[in-house]
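Propose amino acids for all 189 sites.
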């Protein structure tokens, strides 16, 4: 029963990771070696370049005399009841995450994996994919099969990390060798 619950939990984490990566802009991509490969996938326009292309039109100034000056219509300020309420800010960490952090920093692989899960799901806190990858990879490096499986899937699909089929397969094989059935199933695909 415990094994089924764990498999279902990991399946939920994997589905959440796919949804988060497919529907939110990427903040950082981590290479298989652990270093950052790219800052962001969001295109930025340098301040020196115009954000909009110039509109083609006549190149000479008009020859007519300007007419009388027209006063612009006053702009009505929205009333307080018309303004939408700002979205509530989510904390960087929940109480659960804050409780896991000292154990994760102390080298507890299960705490590291659980902290990674909180970062990717963002339940009551901000989603932070870079921290998800950091803690999940740390737990995988310590040999936690669930983390090896999760990171293996991330490397195979390029979710939050630079796609690396070799690294993904290596991690999945390690998890399968430890007896983790979902990893063995993933390797059959």
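Proposal:
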């Amino acid at each position: 029963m415990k094994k089924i619950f764990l498999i279902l939990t990991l399946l939920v984490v994997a589905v959440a990771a796919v949804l988060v990566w497919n529907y939110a802009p990427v903040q950082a991509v981590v290479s298989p070696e652990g270093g950052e490969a790219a800052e962001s996938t969001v295109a930025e326009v340098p301040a020196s370049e115009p954000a909009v292309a110039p509109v083609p039109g006549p190149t000479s100034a008009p020859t007519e005399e300007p007419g009388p000056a027209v006063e612009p219509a006053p702009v009505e300020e929205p009333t307080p009841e018309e303004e939408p309420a700002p979205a509530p800010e989510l904390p960087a960490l929940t109480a659960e995450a804050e409780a896991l952090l000292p154990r994760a920093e102390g080298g507890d692989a299960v705490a590291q994996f659980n902290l990674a899960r909180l970062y990717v799901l963002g339940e009551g806190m901000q989603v932070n994919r870079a921290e998800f990858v950091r803690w999940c990879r740390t737990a995988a490096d310590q040999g936690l099969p669930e983390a090896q499986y999760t990171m293996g899937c991330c490397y195979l699909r390029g979710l939050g990390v630079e796609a690396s089929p070799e690294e993904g397969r290596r991690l999945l094989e390690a998890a399968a060798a430890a007896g983790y059935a979902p990893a063995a199933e993933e390797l059959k695909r």
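The mean pLDDT is 74. Strands lie at 29-30, 36-38.
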